[in-house]
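Subject: Sanity check before I submit

Could someone independently write out the structure tokens for this chain? I want to compare against mine line by line before I put it in a report. The sequence has 521 residues.
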Amino acid sequence: KFGVHSLTATLLAEYQRQKNTGFWTLVKGFSNNDFGYDNLSAGSFHPYGGTGSDFEEPALASFMGSISYQLLDRYTLTLTTRADGSSMIAKNNRWGVFPSISADWDISKEPWFVNLPQSPLKPSTFKLRTGYGISGNLGGISPYNSLQRFLPLGVVSIDNTPVVTLSILRNQNKDLKWETRSSFNIGTDMGFLNNRIALTFDVYWRNNFDLIGQAFTQGAGGTISKYANVADMKSRGVDLGLSTVNIQNTRFRWTSDLIYSTAKNEITNLKTDGRAVDLVTGTGYGVEGYPVRALFSYEFAGLNNEGLPMVINEKGVKTVGDVNFQETENLDGFLVYEGPTDPTWYGSFNNSFQYTFPKAGKINLDVFITYSGGNVVRLDPVFSSAYSDLSALPREFKNRWMVPGDETVTDIPAIASVNQRDRIGSYTLSTAYNAYNYSTARIAKGNFIRLKEVALTYTLPQQLVAKTRFLSSASLKLAATNICLLYADDKLNGQDPEFINSGGVASPISKQLTATLRLGF
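---
Independent answer below. Compare away.
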């Protein structure tokens, strides 16, 4: 620190490498380090000659430098650059350099601000923040992505000449690059009434480039899919935090904490295609012009006079079972966009009450609520063309089609009869019920409010604890977790919107009751 100037510099380096020991079938002349096949000869090939060897997992090296300059204890500028290299990326793109810059201005320390007349609207603290940076990510690629891998299979004879046969396990992915993300944010920290009200607000814009995903190929090189930089995406969001001290005196204190976030994203470029079945399954799928995990549905067209479900197929025709789940053309033309499977807004609300008894310790009560919404949920695909005694049927079946005319009052299909399976065909009928499972009739909103936890803590008075001569503190906490959903879509019928499994939502999470005794020595 030099007078009104302050300078801080940081240098960091990190190196990671894991080593696993395994047993491999080795061949003389076969390079285990780079998976090459130089000098591989049939005469030296021993397909069952297993021998132990150490296999090195890929390494990751990172270097980071940061310099921060502060003037007059209220202006701060920080520059950061990091370089990351991973052997999971081929040599030509192995290293990525990711710089960032940020600035803070503590307005509450400005002389002109300090001299402003006091009023409830004048902040106790007031800071502005902004920053721009680029970061990188590996996108969950395979450890062996940058190397070509072969598996020796055996020896065959061609024109009386022994020839080694190899199987391609994975081709070298030499064109793959790091995922990159540029991010710009503006934020503020404010406090009022001597910081009894504290507010944090941030807004950000992000652009993601070269996102890594599976790309389907024509089979060149022996594989039908591989990792590739297939997409670009943009996103924006707002984060809000509010903390208040509502009541405070010598005996009682009540505080509240509210967190609210909203985020939206859109795929702006996509170089891979999906199938209709990918777009309608419960976890969502990437489609250009839509959110990252967009969920689509077949348009439900009602029940026919036999109680069988109908949808609009890829030809625009109302049908029972004439549906091609493998269709890849014009998907967003005949499928109905339902919304994202990820919440677009979420947060929590906590209230803490503390009461101090005269010479009798203190008691704390915490009530914690979580919430989210803006997304959709695919209901469990429980409908089928045939059931057995082992099938677990949800209560929607009570409202199913039973007699002609019910198709005007219910959208729950009939339990198909043997006669219908014989007339229509098992495959067609099975396809019809599957299409119904992934239709607009089987969608619910993901909005929910959950009473997450209620905790009661009693802390013994210090005077009583001191009499034990070996304890410094003692408290007892009783907590109930995952108590109930205060609000959720009625169409969920008790299913939990917060925990999504493949093809539907999971069973409600279990409630927990815990008792905790804390003793300090």
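---
OP: Matches mine. For the report I'm noting this point. The helical segments are 111-114, 276-280, 331-334, 418-424, 426-437, 462-466.
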